[in-house]
Model the fold of this input.
Amino acid sequence: MTTVIDIKCPRCGRFASFEFAPYVRVKTNCDRDYFENSSDFKVVQWRGSLARFHRYVLYYPHVSNALENIDNLPDGYTSDSWKPINYMYVGGNRAVFASLDNEGVLVCKTCPSAQRYKLNWPEDAYFQITYKGQKLWAYNRAFAVSLLAYLESETRKKTTVSDGAPEPLDPFSIPFRPFFKRQKLARLLFAL
Done:
């Protein structure tokens, strides 16, 4: 699944895309010094298992220099060291991403702007509706279309996660299950 999700631009409120910052673990203190002194990267600490802190270096695509053009990376790092971020799972009316601090790059073609941004999910979601105090959101247009198809379907199957792609309405479908609610939600979602 793609690492790009659709959000509202905080500056203009229009459609923007957000891409998670890929990261790689820092191997040595010398490497950390290099990355901390570079404007293309950001070093963060992350508490891992057994409450141990680990250092990771984030790279911001579209804002930093292209990794292929940075030729003085420390030994053991290549442009392929930074892997794209994937969704881990959807649950409890929230999404959990395999990212560090939900940091990444926001790109808005309306403003236009490309900047480092910390995602506030699901509040930042572009495709979201509120119905009787419950939020229903989608990662992107394709997810919203599949959600709409699910809501309009007469025969709905229990959804599962396949190929790392979350299916709509997996654990948070209970508030939206009755037929009359699904019709209203489909109209609201279609209006987006």
Notes: DSSP finds three helices and eleven strands in the chain. Residues 48 and 89 are 19 Å apart (CA to CA).
